[in-house]
Design brief:
The chain is an all-alpha fold. Helices cover 61% and strands 0% of the residues. The chain is built from two helices and no strands.
Length: 79
């Protein structure tokens, strides 16, 4: 006859492992909870460089040049 202790032990171990994992996730998620978040969007000290329009213009120009170079560089020329 087959012994039924192994499936019971396996079931118990699975429940234990899931309980420990759930407790760990709970502890980690509570550790992320802080009340000291300061979001100031009206600050003009320093500012972000990508908020300037000239950065976007230069970025688009470089992207177009790279795109043109890649498109022309792969074409074969019959001589």
């Amino acid at each position: 006859m087959k012994n039924n202790i192994t499936p019971r032990l396996q079931n118990w171990f699975t429940k234990l492992a899931l309980s420990i994992a759930a407790a760990f996730v709970s502890v980690v998620s509570f550790a992320q909870d802080t009340k000291k978040v300061d979001v100031n969007i009206n600050s003009n000290s320093g500012g972000s460089f990508f908020a300037s329009p000239w950065v976007w213009i230069i970025g688009v120009a470089v992207f177009i040049l790279l795109l043109v170079a890649l498109m022309r560089g792969g074409a074969r020329r019959d001589v």
